[in-house]
Design brief:
Strand order of the largest sheet: 1-2-3-4-5-6-7
Shape: flat
Number of strands: 10
Strand content: 25-35%
CATH topology of the largest domain: Heat Shock Protein 90
Helix content: 25-40%
CATH class of the largest domain: Alpha Beta
Structural class: alpha+beta
Oligomer: single chain
CATH superfamily of the largest domain: Fervidobacterium nodosum Rt17-B1 like
Length: about 280
């Protein structure tokens, strides 16, 4: 069952550069809660899928709106979800329906193993066994001003094993073009080494360390391999880089967010970038 929730943002557009006014774009959302019991038996283990998808619904430029919608859909559901069709023609409702159907279909593939395990052991696994899959996905608008939309897609899941997993992927879109904003749009040439130094130093400060090399004693991997990874979001204060589990640290340290204020990175920013009106105000 798909539950449709109308939301989120309605605001005024100012042709002058106003870094305080929200963009003149509206969003809707689709919320889904689904369960499926193995073999259709409510006494068997089950999978749980919870999802909340926010997407652009109204904007003055319909071509830009179409591009934004496509990007939101592909970043949330994955391009692979539309291998058999043109994703540009898929609506948010259709994308969510396909997502739910695929998740349950994939879970049903465990039914053969479940039957075998039950026959071998003489009793069926409990509902709390590793067959109890779940997935929770959502996206969040972080910043919606100055012709930029910054948002995060997050997913938490369990598919058997010792523990579950999770991931966070950030995106920044340019409302003027409908395209993604990446590092090369923001930073000057040969920015990587300087930005890496600032990231490592900020990470050390976050961990109350004065010497970045001490990070390795805290469990972080080789600090010389901590580099900008393109997984960033921005707001009025600066840029935040997200490193998912195992990228720069073991699972036990979880997701790592490193914030850099615009003041600290002004010397690395292009003065004509989409971020310039915020950073150089």
């Amino acid at each position: 069952m798909l539950l449709f929730v109308t939301a989120i943002t309605s605001c005024k557009f100012n042709k002058a550069i106003d870094t305080e006014a929200e963009n003149d774009i509206k969003f809707d959302s689709i919320t889904v809660e689904e369960k499926y019991y193995l073999l259709g038996d409510t006494t068997n283990p089950f999978c749980t899928l919870e999802s909340n998808f926010i997407f652009p619904s109204e904007y003055k430029d319909k071509d830009i709106l179409s591009k934004l919608n496509l990007y939101f859909i592909e970043s949330f559901f994955g391009i692979d979800s539309f291998a058999d069709k043109d994703s540009s023609s898929v609506t948010p409702e259709q994308a969510m329906k396909s997502y739910v159907q695929k998740y349950i279909s994939d879970y049903k593939e465990l039914e053969g193993d479940f039957i075998t395990d039950t026959e071998v052991s003489g009793e069926k696994p409990s509902q709390e066994s590793w067959y109890a899959y779940y997935e929770a996905s959502s996206n969040e608008i972080i910043y919606n001003k100055c012709d930029l939309i910054s948002y995060t897609v997050s997913v938490e899941y369990y598919t058997g094993g010792a523990h579950g997993g999770y991931g966070y992927n950030n995106h920044v879109l340019n409302l003027k073009t409908g395209e993604e904003v990446d590092e090369t749009d923001i930073f000057i040439e040969d920015y990587q080494d300087s930005l890496a130094y600032l990231l490592v130093y900020a990470l050390a400060m976050d961990n109350n360390l004065t010497n970045p090399e001490e990070l390795e004693n805290k469990g972080f991997f080789n600090i010389e391999e901590i580099y900008p990874n393109g997984n960033f979001y921005l707001d009025e204060n600066g840029i935040t880089y997200t490193y998912n589990v195992y990228e720069i640290a073991p699972f036990s340290l979880g997701k790592i967010d490193i914030f850099l204020s615009y003041e600290k990175i002004l010397h690395l920013l292009k003065k004509d970038s989409p971020v310039a009106p915020i950073a150089f105000k």
